Structures are given as structure tokens and as C-alpha cells.
Amino acid sequence: MSGLVFDMSGVFMKVSTLLGLIWLVLTPTHILAEVPLAVEIISAKTVTVVHEIKVVGAVEAKDSFPASFRRGGQIDYLDAEVGRQLRAGEVIARIDATNISAALDAARANLNAAEAAWVQAEQARARMDTLLARGVGTQAQYDEAQQAFLAAQASRDQARAMLETAEQALDDTEIRAEDDVTVIEKFVDLGEVVSAGAPVATLALKGKKQAVFLAPDAAGLSKILNHEVELDPSGADGPFSSKITEVLPVLTSTGTVEIHADIPEATSTDIPIGASISGRATIEIDQRIVLPWSALTADSKGPAVWVVDPETSTVSLKSVRVGSYNDMTVELTQGLDEGDLVVGAGSQMLFDGRPVVAGETKQ
């Protein structure tokens, strides 16, 4: 037994190293939980959020409508180039009226004949009335003259109606401007055959224009209605003020909202339809709590922030609802109250219950 000698120093060294590693692995959360972390602490404050909306759109006619023929035919006259300004009564387009003109001539001749027959029948009735009064005519002869007169009168009235129909048919071969208008779109060419009701051109009433914008759908956008907007058309002299007249409730196919603003008639004369125009307006959204991006994190329910308990100086996650995201901040609509203490910078190093200390405090 005396020959066996054990060197325990190496064993103790290995055990000590192992215990040290176990301490490093097992104790960080316990130790760190007792060491306050210096973070940025923000006192939540409710503010009135004002958003500036900047959009780019185009100038359009406020009152526009399609022009079409009431009957079909081949176009033999067309004065509908885009941008063409027409005065009330001017012909915009006309279809071939050869057959219709011939029918009109026939209707006029028919009416002339019917009126002549009516005059003769009226004279014959008057003559028989006189003879009957003198006793030299019979009642049967008078009745026959009366029937002939009524038949001639019916033929005359029918001929008049046929003439009116033929005249209307001739009128229907033309499209005339009912007011001073501008052609903003053309759909046909000279010589083309069109059907009744098919649009030939789109016309806009002169002087009435509006700016049309497509804006991203955002909360509170409907509040911009009737608000003042600064309009700045390209190529015109300086911006001018107007009002938002319409915010369409239905989204477009691109998921945007269509916004309209009137252009004053005194200004619109220098701005062509189709010109590019920009708009800028500010609106008050509502009362929100605004925090820097660094404060926002997430939990299993969605967006959240770390809230500091003022009594224990420890943090816990609190779910919030984000109203909008900006370049440097987020706007919260729910989840926080006035005066709540929220961690900003340093929030990425937190866990539930960790103590913190204010490295920087913001109001």
C-alpha cells in the first residue's frame, strides 16, 4: 500500500474549472436580474397628430359626358380632335344622310298632297252644308262629304307626323355641342361605321375643371373633405388654394382613394386638361401617443412596448395598437395611458421583470 501515491492537485484543478463553468452558465439571469440596465425612459404623452398629405394627380373636367348618335351610320364629318374647343351649336360629327334626306323630301311631298286633299274635302263639306241648308241637298250627301273631310284630315295629320319623324331622323344624323365644350377624348375616325348610342367623343363643359388625386388609404383620410388644399399645376404660374370637394368611399383597383379638388374657373383657363398637378394638405387625425421606433417590439398578440413599473423599476410587455408608422416614430391609438413610462433605446435587451434605470428620460 505504501507504494501507491495519488496526486490530487490535478483533480482539484479540473473540479474547480468545471464548477466555474457551471456558475457562468447557470447564474447570468439571476445575477443580471439584479443589475438595473440603463435605458431610455419615455413618459407617454397624448398629442394631436397632424398629418401632411402630398399627392400628385391630373387635371380633369369636372363635368364631362359622352357624345353619341341616336342612329347608326357611316361618319362623313368629324371635328372632334382632343383639345378642340367648340361653341354651342357647332357640329361635332355627322353620319351619311343621303337616304334620310330622300325620305324627308318624300315626307314633305306627301304632306303637301295631304294638305291639298284636306282643303278640297273641307270645301266640298262646306258646299254640301250650304246646299242642305237651302233644301236642295240631302243629308246623305252631307254625311258623305263629312266623312271625306274627316278622312282627309286624318291623312293630313298622319303626313305631318311622318314629316316630323323624318326631320328628327335628319337631326339625329348630327351631333351638335349644346354648350361651349372641349373635346377630351375621341373614339372614332372619319369614315367609320358606328351604331346608335356608341360613344363618338367625350366632351367637357368649358371652364369647369378639377384636380383628381389617388392617395394611399390611411386612417383619418376622410377627414380631409372640405379642407383647404394647396394645388400646384405644372407649367402654371405658382400654386393656389382650393378645397377638397370629394373623397370617394370606394377604393380603386390599385387600393387607393380618389380625391377631388375644384380648380377655380379664373385659374382653370390657363391649365389644360390632362396636365400634371400636385396637392398638399394638412389634417388633424386625432389624439395619439407618439413614440420613437426604438420603443416598439412585439409579443404573441402583435405590437407591444416595454412599460416600466415606477414602484419596482422593473419592466413588462404591454400590447398596443399602432395607428400609423412614420419615418422615425410610431403613433399608438390604444394600449397606453398618459404618463406611462415606456422604454425607448435599449428595449432590445430587456426581458420580463428586468430592473432598469433611466439612462435618459424624455417627455
TrEMBL record:
<dbReference type="Pfam" id="PF25967">
    <property type="entry name" value="RND-MFP_C"/>
</dbReference>
<dbReference type="InterPro" id="IPR006143">
    <property type="entry name" value="RND_pump_MFP"/>
</dbReference>
<feature type="domain" description="Multidrug resistance protein MdtA-like C-terminal permuted SH3">
    <location>
        <begin position="289"/>
        <end position="346"/>
    </location>
</feature>
<dbReference type="GO" id="GO:1990281">
    <property type="term" value="C:efflux pump complex"/>
</dbReference>
<dbReference type="GO" id="GO:0015562">
    <property type="term" value="F:efflux transmembrane transporter activity"/>
</dbReference>
<feature type="coiled-coil region">
    <location>
        <begin position="97"/>
        <end position="124"/>
    </location>
</feature>
<protein>
    <recommendedName>
        <fullName>Multidrug resistance protein MdtA-like C-terminal permuted SH3 domain-containing protein</fullName>
    </recommendedName>
</protein>
<dbReference type="InterPro" id="IPR058627">
    <property type="entry name" value="MdtA-like_C"/>
</dbReference>
<comment type="similarity">
    <text>Belongs to the membrane fusion protein (MFP) (TC 8.A.1) family.</text>
</comment>
<keyword id="KW-0175">Coiled coil</keyword>
